[in-house]
Amino acid sequence: MPALRYGGPIRSVHALCRGLATCGHDVHVFTTNVDGDGDTDVPLERAVDLDGVKVTYFPSRRLRRLYWSPPMRRELLQALPTFDLVHLHAIYLWPLWAGARIARRVHVPYVSSPRGMLAPELIRRKSRFVKEAWLGLIERRNLENAAAIHATSTAEADDIRRLGWSLPPVRVVPHGVDDPEQTSGKSASADVTAAIAGGGYVLSLGRINWEKGLDRLIGALPASPTARVVIAGDDREGHAASLRELARQLDASDRVTILARHVDGADKEALFAGAALFAMPSLAENFGLAAFEAMRRGLSVLVTREVGMSEIVREAKAGIVVEGAPEAVAAGLNILLADASRRMAMGDAGRAHVVARYGWPAVVGQMEALYRSALAADARKKALR
To answer: Angle at which helices 94-105 and 70-79 pack, to 10 degrees?
Structure first.
C-alpha cells in the first residue's frame, strides 16, 4: 500500500496511476519500502498489483533520508529502455535523480513533477544551502532536460519559471479528488469521537509540520474567541509539541485539539462531517489537496494566498483567501464563523465546482494530453539530431 503518512502527493500520485491504468495504460511504479523510521511490509523487488498498477518496492538500507537503493538502480537500468515515457514525482531525492539520469542515458523522455518543492519559501526556510547546492548541481540539469515539467497550480508554475533556467514547457494539470469514502457501519475512533464532540470546529487535516503554518492558525485564536480548532495528521518531526506549547502560552489550550497520527477512513470522514469549516494556513503549498477534499465534502475553506489552489477557491467562491498573519487569519475565521448561511453557500459552490471539473477522469485526460505533447516534443528533438 502507499506510504500515506507522507501526505497528499502520495494519494494523488496513486490515484493518477490508478486512473491511467483504468484507461488501458500499462503503468509501473518504482518506489522504496521506506515508511518513516520503519519499512512498509510489502514484497521486495517484484511487481505487485495495486488497483491495476504494477508497483515494485525496493529496500533502502543506507542513506534512507535520500531513499538510496542500489537494487532500484539495477532495475531502472534494465526496465527504463522498455518504457515509452517516465514520470518523476518530487525532487531532492535519489530515486528521482537516478531516474532522470538513466532515462537520459537510454533516450527515454521523462516528465518531472517537482510537487511544490521549488517554492522559494520552502527553499529559504529549511536546509537552504543544501537545497541550493542540490538544485545547482543536480536538479537544474534534470529539469532542463525533461520533455515537460508538470505543475499542479498556476502558482507553482510561476515559481518554477522564476528560476530563469532553460526549461521545457511547464504544463499545469491540477490534482484530482476522490469521492468521500463510504464508511457506513464503521465507527470513529475514541479520540476522534472526543475531538468532534459538539461540532462547529475549524478543521486542519494533513501533515503536522512547519510548512503548514499551523502556528498561524493557533496564533489567530486570541482574536477569534469563538473558534475551536482540531488539527489532525502525521507528526514525523514532533511539531505538535511546539503547537501545544503555543496554545498554552496564548491561554487557548482548551480550544485546541491535536490528533498527532495518521487519519483516514471513518475517522477522516467523521472529522470532515463535524467541522464548521476547513483551514489551510500554509506558508507554501503547491496545491492543497486536503482543502480540495474539504470542498468536495461541502465545507467552506479558509486558505492563505500561498496555497496553490487558492486560485480555485476564489474562482469557485468556495471560501476566503487571507494573508498569513494571525490577525488576517482571525479576521477570516470571524467572518465565516459568524454566518452559517454564508458558509453553507460557499460549501455548496465549492462542492459543485470540484465535482464538475476535478474528478479523476477529467484530470487523467489532461495528463494524457501532457504525455502526448511530451512524446511529440521528444520525437521532434530526436529528428533534429
So the answer is: 30
Fold match between domain 4-176+360-383 and domain 190-357: yes
Measured between alpha carbons, how far is residue 262 from residues 146, 159, 384 in Å? 34, 30, 50
CATH architecture, domain defined by 4-176+360-383:
3-Layer(aba) Sandwich (3.40)
Burial class (CB in 10 A: 0-12, 13-18, 19+), 179: exposed
pLDDT of amino acid 177: 84
Q: How far apart are CA 40 and CA 299, in angstroms?
A: 33
Residue 230 and residue 143: Cα distance in Å, rounded?
39
Amino acid of residue 204 = S
Reading the block at residue 374, the C-alpha cell is: 511530451
| Alpha-carbon gap, residue 216 to 305, rounded angstroms | 13
What gap in Å lies between CA 281 and CA 305, rounded to an integer? 8
Q: Which residues, including other chains, have CB under 8 Å from residue 335's CB and lie 6 or more apart?
A: 320, 342
DSSP annotation of 236 reads: T
- The answer to whether 172 touches 151, Cβ cutoff 8 Å, is yes
**223-266 per-position pLDDT tens digit:** 999 999 999 999 988 999 999 999 999 999 999 999 999 998 99
- 68-88 tens-digit pLDDT: 999 999 999 999 999 999 999
Q: Which of 380, 374, 375 is nearest to 149 (CA)?
A: 374
Q: Which CATH architecture has domain 190-357?
A: 3-Layer(aba) Sandwich (3.40)
Task: State the pLDDT at residue 10.
Answer: 81
Q: What are the φ and ψ backbone dihedral angles of 184, each rounded to 5 degrees? A: -60, 135
Domain edges within the chain: 4-176+360-383, 190-357
pTM: 0.74
The set of residues, in sequence order, having a beta carbon less than 8 Å from that of 68 and lying 6+ positions away, is 60, 62, 94
Dmax over CA atoms of the chain, in Å, equals 68
Q: What is the grid cell recorded at 42?
A: 510489502
